[in-house]
Predict the 3D structure of the following.
Amino acid sequence: MLVVGLGNPGKRHAGSPHNVGFRVLESFAEELGQVAWTRRFQGEVVMASVDQAELLLLKPLTYMNRSGESVREAMSFFALSEADTLIVHDELDLPLGSLKLKRGGGEAGHNGLKSVSAALGTRDYFRLRVGVGRPPSGEVSDFLLAPLPGADLDKLEGGIQAARAAIGLVARQGVDRAMSSVNRRAAPPDQGAAGATEAETTAAETTAAEATAAETPEAGRPD
């Protein structure tokens, strides 16, 4: 199985909400003693084993809006389908530190997901969504690319640990069984409000995303 963590290269982005995908994969690999990442598929990769399951962990280094190029290369090389692919990413429309495992759906404005959908020609891949919440004020792009304050960082760390455990469940049980366990986890108190926002956002962006699904951005951007 291919497990992709979305994020941006460079130290300046390391502690930002948009780099949660990278942090989850790094934490997961470290737990398994796999720290020797190598450059391949326009990204960094490491192989990991969980029981009898073999996982290829991939961190695209293309910048967020071109992540799909790296994902497509890896899938093509190993002849993998979207059913063999799990994308780990930050999610504005989930409370900070919460998780949701799902298959398919819209991109809700996430440029990394847009790139993956465009590169694969489908949205029907698995996603592990790690909640980062929405900023109370200001530009969303500024929030996603700036380091989180200490208290929020602690909450996010809990989500990263839960996401690491969720990948282990996927490897051992398969996505369908793992989905039930992951999505049964107790959510923070504001889950209801966030869920409504998520539904509204997904419905609003579906038509626009369909129109841009075949486009591949020419320049790498971190947002």
User: Anything to note?
Assistant: Strands lie at 2-5, 38-40, 43-50, 53-60, 85-91, 99-103, 126-131. The two ends are 27 Å apart (CA to CA). Helices lie at 20-31, 67-77, 111-120, 140-145, 150-173, 175-183, 191-212. The chain is about 40% helix and 20% strand.
